[in-house]
Write a structure and sequence with these properties.
alpha/beta, about 35% helix, F-box domain-containing protein, F-box_dom, LRR_dom_sf, F-box-like_dom_sf
Length: about 625
């Protein structure tokens, strides 16, 4: 094994977990030297203390002895920093930690160092003891010698972070939480940290926004009445602290973790003055003063455009309380045009912001991810899908699983209304002698890879009752209307020849947000539906069927489709449809929400027979549905 080149080991080691790597390292000294670089490559301590992970002098000595192999560090315990920065003055040949690529520190408190780093030198009383006591003392000393600091000095997070940064010039990712930006009575440590931060390869910087304040500043709970021009002048004063520092030319992503509302501390935001090549900006939370500062600057133009002319990606996390006009101004702050917009919860979303998003979709936007829409008119959804693009739009994403609550509003299209509007427009164009074979949802072209969309309002006269057995109101629509509306929707979806994931199902509920209604996770889906209806829908009945009768064959061109999500919908996918999908969607791996008893169809025995047949078919195709996956013919 020792004759195998390290390059071969480097191909094997990534496929082994930490336990396997540790076993290999214990086989022999030769194996230990081969696998040590991979065993110590990452040190992550997040849900435990450093003392629990390295609970003996020997384990701490091993960490310090091998710390030069460490490339990624994640810690929520200050004591890990002490171990990584510790030196053994009795053995200067030991290498320091100088080749970190990713450092993530999120300390919850400012507690002093609590870990004893090694074994203290023997006391005079021990030295006067017999030979046996002396040998035992020497053994303990040797076991902890590598982990011993000659003199115990007072250390704070700040000094330790500075030391690590100054010697790790290959650092790519730096994430700093609250605790590591405080120490020794300093009120604002970020400029000092940024001065020590390596600039050669750093691509991602994450910092806690507005962690501490000067005592002279207003309390963070007090809303101040300053103008955006005064805020701009304050910001300019803060940027002077960075004017002598080198620009972060390689930095592409800057993340501000959190922000206290309406606080006049712009010291953290001032780091933007060094980020002229920034591509992505992310806020854990943003208020109106920060938005005004970035969008308006001194009133003559967008400050964000001036400081970060390469910016093309914006992510706003949490509840976005910005008023419509203010949000629209911020969304106009990209000089090159946004390629990615990620907006968590739009509370005051209205016409102005919507118009800017439509403009982005028609020009540069590739990814639009909005977790929750508020103030979104149903007609806007169809209009957005009908926007002419440059062929660049790739992903439309909505609410995540487990995030749905009583106020969640998804990106929704009403099938029947949209179809009728299309018919009216076609008749108008025909009367004017114009083309009538136009494609309505122009935004959904071959470039689309991911589409998350709620399609409701499909005429479904075959759905006669709720899943609980209670009858539904009688639907006046005929089966003719049922199929016409669905085929029109299929034709709009059929143009997405590059589509990989089609998400049309209902996302999972956030049980913690609706637990006040007496619900819990142990309840069945039908019990939850009964408890929440009629005001809160957990199951969709007026949806696409995905049956061959409804026009499924129109979607035969979706050759790249990997995932179809029809969870909690009244679909009619049976064995015949699965066989069709296997032929026409060769890369289809899974269908979320496939198995259904079809209680809503009224004939429970027929529904159970379909379910059993589908389950038997899936058993024969355990690897995937499409023809590119091998089936089990046993």
């Amino acid at each position: 094994m020792t004759s195998i080149p390290q390059e071969i080991i480097d191909l094997i080691a990534p496929h082994l977990n930490q336990h396997d790597l540790a076993d290999c390292s214990r086989v022999s000294h030769d194996w230990s030297s081969l696998f040590a670089p991979w065993l110590w490559r990452t040190v992550h301590i997040t849900n435990e203390s450093t003392h629990d992970r390295f609970n003996s002098p020997e384990s701490r000595a091993a960490l310090i002895r091998n710390k030069h192999f460490v490339r990624e560090v994640t810690a929520t315990d200050q004591n890990l920093l002490l171990l990584l920065s510790a030196h053994d003055h009795s053995d200067p040949s030991l290498l320091k930690l100088t080749d970190l690529r990713a450092l993530t520190l999120r300390f919850h408190t400012d507690a002093p160092w609590s870990l004893t780093v090694g074994t203290p030198p023997p006391s005079p009383a021990q030295e006067e003891g017999g030979a046996e006591e002396e040998e035992e003392a020497m053994t303990r000393t040797r076991a902890g010698a590598i982990a011993t600091i000659a003199e115990l000095v007072e250390v704070d997070n700040f000094r330790t972070v500075l030391e690590l940064l100054s010697i790790n010039t290959n650092l790519r990712t730096l994430r700093l939480g609250k605790g590591c930006l405080r120490g020794a009575g300093r009120s604002d440590l970020l400029p000092h940290i940024m001065e020590a931060c390596p600039t050669t390869f750093l691509t991602t910087l994450e910092i806690c926004f507005n962690d501490v304040q000067n005592e002279s500043r207003a309390k963070h709970n007090v809303i101040t009445n300053t103008t955006h021009l005064e805020d701009y002048q304050t910001f300019q004063l803060e940027t002077r602290r960075y004017q002598d520092q080198e620009p972060l030319l390689t930095l592409k992503q800057l993340i501000f973790l959190e922000h206290r509302t309406n606080c006049d501390d712009f010291s953290r935001l001032a780091v933007l003055a060094r980020c002229s090549h920034l591509v992505r900006l992310e806020f854990g939370s943003i208020d109106c003063r920060i938005a005004d500062l970035l969008a308006l600057g001194d009133g003559t133009g967008s400050l964000l455009r001036t400081l970060c002319p390469c910016l093309t990606e914006l992510a706003l996390r949490g509840v976005i309380l910005l008023r419509d006009a203010r949000l629209a101004a911020l969304l106009r702050s990209s000089k090159l045009g946004w390629r990615v917009l990620e907006l968590d919860e739009l509370v005051r979303f209205s016409h102005n912001a919507y118009a800017v998003i439509v403009e982005c979709v028609s020009t540069t936007l590739e990814v639009l991810r909005i977790n929750r829409w508020r103030g979104l008119y149903p007609a806007w959804c169809s209009h957005l899908l009908s926007t002419t693009t440059q062929g660049q739009f790739r992903r439309l994403e909505g609410v995540s699983n487990g995030k749905v609550d009583a106020i969640t509003k998804e990106f929704t299209v009403h099938a029947q209304n949209t179809y009728e509007d299309h018919r009216v427009e076609m008749a108008r164009q025909k009367n004017q002698g114009q083309r009538t074979d136009i494609w309505s949802w122009i935004a959904l072209g071959p470039s689309m890879e991911y589409l998350q969309l709620a399609i409701e309002g499909v005429p479904r006269p075959d759905v006669v009752c709720w899943r609980s057995g209670e009858p539904l109101p009688i639907q006046s629509m005929s089966h003719c209307h049922r199929y016409k509306a669905q085929k029109w929707i299929y034709r709009q979806l059929a143009s997405m020849s590059g589509l990989q994931e089609l998400i049309l199902g209902k996302p999972d509920l956030n049980m913690s947000c609706i637990s006040f209604r007496g619900l819990d996770a142990s309840m069945s889906s039908i019990e939850i539906e009964d408890a929440l209806s009629p005001g809160f829908a957990t199951y969709q009945y007026d949806c696409l069927e995905f049956s061959l009768e409804s026009g499924l064959d129109i979607l035969s061109g979706l050759k790249e489709l990997r995932v179809l999500d029809v969870k909690s919908t009244a679909h009619r996918i049976g064995v015949a449809e699965l066989e069709w999908m296997r032929i026409h969607w060769p890369k289809l791996k899974a269908i979320e929400g496939l198995v259904s008893r079809r209680e809503w169809a009224g004939a429970l025995e027929d529904g159970e027979a379909v379910r059993d047949a589908v389950e038997a078919w899936i058993d024969k195709h355990p690897n995937g549905i499409g023809s590119s996956f091998l089936c089990n013919n046993k």
